[in-house]
Amino acid sequence: MSFGVDLGVNERGESVGLDLAELLATRLLVQGNSGSGKSHLLRRLLEGSAGTVQQVVIDPEGDFVTLSDAFGHRVIDAASYSLGEVATIAARIREHRASAVLSLEGLEIDDQMRCAAAFLNTLFEVPREHWFPALVVVDEAQLFAPAAAGEVADDARKASLSAMTNLMCRGRKRGLAGVIATQRLAKLAKNVAAEASNFLMGRTFLDIDMLRAADLLGMERRQAEAIRDLERGQFLGLGPAIARRPVLVRVGSVKTGANNAMPVLLPLPGAEGAQPDLLANLEPAPAPIRPSRAKSRDALALGMEGEEVRVSTSLDMDGLLKTVEAPPSVPELPSLDDSERATRMQSILSGLARGFDGQPAPALYQEFTVGCRMAGIAPVPGLADFRRLFAMALAGLDESETWAEALSLGAALPEEMLAPFLRIAHAAREAAPGPDDAELARIYGTASLGRVKRMLGHMEERGVIVIRTDLAGGRSIALPHLGWTTAVTEAGRAA
């Protein structure tokens, strides 16, 4: 079934539509400088297709939250949730086919990238029975798929870029149709932009962006100047869902508006009268406090002459030296014995392991450090130690047990494979049936059984495990360096 979204009119006043069914099979890239009307165009598309297809919006500036009032989109304020909770919400959105806006407003760019990565990865990795068609609109896509490393954490950039690449390159088979908008094509990763088959190019002024836009539209380079002359709200469209030849589109009106107000010229407050004196009644900046040790006069008056207190000196308003007693120090938390410390830490790690859904290690470490402070655990283990401890918790191992040989062998693998390897080692040491693919997928942080098979293949290539499959399809896994072997796993559970 075909459904057209009315984008606006062309030069002759004729309606220009966008074939929604074709868009779901292809993908769309929107480009234009700030003020060219990108957000207005996306809003027109979302309003025109609301109620026909599920919509998910990644909104870094909170521009699209007003869709909830007119069309019932669920607004998710990312600042109010942890990464694990955001991933859980994404899975529920996919399952229940709910239209939603993920508002990243108020987050630092690193946290925006981590949050968008966790959200998009969950949309991508849900079970096959939840692969319903959905438009996934990402505004300011150059933030989440940058062409080059910038002043952001490397783990956040890699996670976000990987999620965006999955959306645009592999999302179609899972029903996800990426619609990405960017201010500059030169700032957007090429492997993300290259997957779009439909284009709407708005006004841009830089030569490099005009030439790239002209190339994508199939225009000659001497025609690229036309992109600079476009008015606000005008776009050149091309693609199987729009037109076979570049067509000028003047985007129509919308029902909802953005939260951020457009700049409007207003008279200055002092235009009709005298302006206030901005330099009057200025208070001097406080002088730096110099810590010292002295006897307290109050203590001396009470007869406690041998007791000293911490005091500081500073200048008062008249420039005279005065003595100020510093606030008392914060009492230290009661120390924990080794047994109690290990018990509390294991409880925190077990809780994180139960809620694990593929979140990146730095995000989990942040939750771990908060839990340790609340439990009075000091000092908090570093990130490297946390990765090892969390892998053991995922594998169901107790730190009190001796696993030095298995950990040493697992060091030859990528760090994300340590937990599945330790789970296999645990079963092999007990000669118990090995974990099935579904269990390994959960520990590995994925919903793809294909990734689990590739992971096991990589372990076998490195020589840390040997997989044996019998004629009935049962699987056993041996660790030749340690002399351990799992019992046979049933064929139905291993496949």
Keywords:
495 residues; alpha/beta; Rossmann fold; 3 domains; 11-stranded mixed β-sheet; 3-stranded antiparallel β-sheet; 19 helices; 17 strands; 38% helix; globular; P-loop_NTPase; HerA-like; helicase; hydrolase; nucleotide-binding
How does this model look, in words?
The protein is of the alpha/beta class and 495 residues long. The chain has 3 domains: 4-251, Rossmann fold; 290-325, no CATH class; 338-494, no CATH class. Helices cover 38% and strands 18% of the residues. The chain contains 19 helices and 17 strands. The protein has an 11-stranded mixed β-sheet with strand order 2-1-11-10-9-3-8-7-4-6-5. Strands 12-13-14 form a 3-stranded antiparallel β-sheet. Strands 15-16-17 form a 3-stranded antiparallel β-sheet, covered by helices on one side. Strand 1 (4-9) and strand 2 (15-19) form a beta hairpin.
Give the helix/strand layout.
Blueprint: E1 4-9, E2 15-19, H1 20-26, E3 28-31, H2 38-49, E4 54-59, H3 67-71, E5 74-77, H4 83-96, E6 100-103, H5 109-125, E7 134-138, H6 141-144, H7 154-170, E8 176-182, H8 190-193, E9 198-201, H9 207-217, H10 225-228, E10 234-239, E11 243-251, E12 290-295, H11 297-301, E13 308-315, E14 321-325, H12 338-354, H13 361-374, H14 383-394, H15 404-410, H16 418-429, H17 437-444, H18 449-462, E15 466-469, E16 475-479, E17 484-485, H19 491-494
Parallel strand pairs: 3-8, 3-9, 4-6, 4-7, 5-6, 7-8
Antiparallel strand pairs: 1-2, 1-11, 9-10, 10-11, 12-13, 13-14, 15-16, 16-17
Helix pairs in contact: 4-5, 5-7, 12-13, 12-14, 14-16, 17-18
